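Reader question, answered in our methods column.
A reader sent in the components of a multi-part assembly and asked whether the whole thing could be modeled at once rather than chain by chain. We filled in our standard form and ran it. Here is what they sent:
COMPLEX SIZE: two components
ENTRIES:
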Amino acid sequence: MAFLPDESRSLPPPPLLNKGSVWLGFAGWMSALLDNAFNQRPIFRAGVHRQILFATVGCFVGYQLVKRAEYMHAKVDRELFEYIRHHPVDFHTATG
Amino acid sequence: MAAGLRAVRRWGLVATAPGLAFTRSAFVVKKVNNVQPNWLGVGLAFGTSAALWALLIKQHNEDVMEYERRKQERGHKCTGCS
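And here is the structure of the entire assembly that came back:
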């Protein structure tokens, strides 16, 4: 299956800075800082281009992953509601 | 023990660290020059970051437009879902 099928575009897209993209961007930034630490460079002031690149890659990957997660959740919800619609007997609310 | 090891190394019986091609000790690192900026690396990193941000923002805007377009097409027939 494709990473993001065409029907996933019918869903409202998540905001650019969502929990996935922010967290993975932060993780990318941290790994750049960790690289500075392991190579005995000043942690924050060194390799700013590297910090920006890693954070950007994290944001990008996070955004795509959140889109896919939202699509998978929506697909499962749709199947659930279809099942409930097709089996009304099992889901009587007031009488049962 | 260190003196004995030095002696053995002088005799050429023990490979020194630069001679070990397949292992890399954590205590012997290559000489990195952190003083002069690696301008090619810096340029590539900034260029790639700019390209990735542009791609991300363009993709997000396209996603929003496509979602709005499909919502218009659907005409919002069902009232139960969003």
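What stands out: Helices of chain B lie at 2-10, 39-74. The longest helix of chain B spans residues 39-74.
Send us your own complexes using the same form.
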